[in-house]
Every structure is written in structure tokens, then in C-alpha cells.
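Thread: "does anyone have the structure for this chain?"

Original post by V.I.:
We have the sequence but no experimental structure in hand. Need at least a predicted one for the grant figures.
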Amino acid sequence: MVAGISPASALATAVLNVADRNPLQRHGVMFNASGSQLTGVSADQLSYLFKFGDGITQSSFSPLALHAYAQPGHYVATVVVSGGGLAATSAPVTLAVREWLPPTVTIVSPRQDATVRLRSRAVSLRGAAVDPVGVRSVRLSLAFIGRASSARASAVSCYFFNGRRGLHRASCSAPEYFKAHVTGSRWSYKLSPGSQLPTGIYELRVQATDNAGNQTSAFRARLGNLIDFTLLR
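Reply from O.Q.:
Generated one for you, C-alpha cells below.
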């Protein structure tokens, strides 16, 4: 907890405590000015003007305020406490708000429900991953669904490509990943003709992590980070 305290005064002191000065964006932060005092003024006669530093203020008779920052960055917060003709402003408290959203991922190739041929030439898996603070890594999960898409519904265990040559059996609820090559905002991986991947339907999902540690956790076709495609040998 971080406190901002106004310069010592015999009549008025404003204190601002912040529960977390390194919060995530879009997550509420509690501001507490209950330690403020104005001589001769009871607590129930005090009013508080919270200035959060992002252009938003909140006036209240409560010493507590909950605020969420919409964007990452550095913000300086203060509180003005007034009552009985007196007023005091707290010392500033600086908050460094961290990004919360994971990278935006797209799969360029192959397309949803596409058919690709892995014969004499490699098959390129590629796409993009974009994030305001930069992308640290991209991992891929390639699961063999079977000869028909109906096999997915009854599957308890799945076969995942291990990033080298063959498939590895594991729980469908715990996908296995391998690293993609990342250059700027683009990622790619080449399936070699020597890979021991049978003909069938495959599910490709892409997991990206940004430089703030935010990681893809939801996978949907509409989010652009998951597709099905057919591979022929």
C-alpha cells in the first residue's frame, strides 16, 4: 500500500493510500483517504475529490473510491479533502498501470476448412500476432482430429504434433505446444515433408505471449486463433 500525505499542517492533513500502484488496466484499484484530518471537523462532514490522473475525477462523502484505468501507462493521483472551511491536498501518488489484454492473433495460412498437401514440399503455417507492448513468443498446437470431424466429440485423448516429426498422445484438455518462429508481428512454422503426420483433419491453435506476460487463454474460430484444416499425404 502506498500513501501520499500532504505537508504537515496544524489544521489540515490529506492522506491518500492506494492498494496497488502497479495494477492491471481495466481492473479496479482502491483509493483510501480515511487517514485525512481537518481540525475541528468531524469525519462525517468531510468531502473528498479524488483525481485519478487520467482525466477522471470523483467527488464523494466517502473516503473510499474504486477506479479502473482504461489504458496502461503512468498516472499521478491525488485527493482534495475539504470541510468546515478548510481544505488539504494530498501528496501525489504515481501508479504504473500494466497492460492486461493478450496479443491479437490471426492465422493467415492455412484457412479454415482448407485442404493442404504435405508431399514433396513443406506446408507453411503462418499468421500475425500484434500487441502494443510487443510480442515475446508464439506457440502452436497442432492436434490430429481424425479422418472425420465427428471424431472430435467422442475423443478423450488426442494426438498432438511434437514440433519435430511425429504425433504424441495426450489429454485433449491439455494441448501440447511447440514454438513458432517470430519476426516482428509475423509468426511462421514449416511442416516438413518428412514429418510423420497422417492424412486427416487437424486443429491448429495459436497462443501468443506479450512482453508484459499476458497470454492467450481463449481459443475460438471467431477470435482468429483457432482453425480446422485437412492435410493430405
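V.I.: this helps a lot. The chain has two domains: 2-97, 104-232.
O.Q.: and The longest helix spans residues 151-154.
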